[in-house]
Amino acid sequence: MIPMQQQVSLGQIPAIRPGIKQAERLHVAIITDGNGRWATFRGLPRSAGHRAGAEAARSVIEAAPALGIHTLTLFALSAANWKRPAAEVNAILRLLHEYLLAETTHCIHEGVRLSILGRRDRIPATLRQVIADSEAATSRGTRLHVRLAIDYSAREAIFSAACRFYKATELSQDSFSQVLSEVQRGGSTEVDLLIRTGGEQRLSDFLLWECAFAEFVFLAKRWPDFTGGDLRAAIDEFHQRERTRGSLPDEVLAEHPNRPTLPQCFHYFRACVCALRTFEGREVIRRFRPARRLFSRSK
After folding, report:
1. 35 is catalytic
2. 174 and 243 share a domain?
């Protein structure tokens, strides 16, 4: 690591360490909730909780590549957090500034790429410059992609992408994802596992598009207490789950290789409807109507 306030010189940055293995390419997103409550419980200022949360982020980033994680997205500051007291928001922005200065060279040595998601027009100019320097300096990292969401709102990102999308020549989900990636700057890839600490069970406007098929793990533990071991436990739980993405489990498909296709099911349904239109079918419907009326009255 480099000292807290030392500026990063791109010319002094060493090359990426050779021999770093590619990861399993999981995308894990974490809503790092509970910093303020962690500090309040200990009689400390809320800013102390955010600083402790930065230490937790370091340990999680260190543990991620060995667990098959290729992309790690951390929710550092939401667009809604501007509603908090100015002193707390400014403390978070200062901490992010210090973190990027302190960790950039270390990330390069470890093959970690840093990207920032979210708006940049409302954060201090000095932080914007540090962000640009860190992103440029770590752009060759291939072992792990760490994305920090700062002043981020998924709704706002989707809305901005939609405003650009109407000009696109190709209208598809893939092309929209590409536009969304440009809006967010840090890319747009599907999330495999979303973890939220702090006891709450909601998305809070975080990666709504990318989490369409994500698995969720909600933990009561607050973010400063979250460790690499907790990350491993969440990954283990993720691997125990069966992800079908709307299809059927592989073993079910193997047991029924001659299952009817969707068009075949549709034709069968249409044949049933045609049969009901015959005299016998109408007679069945006529006899059923009194029972249906009786059932509706009993509700």
Report:
1. no
2. yes
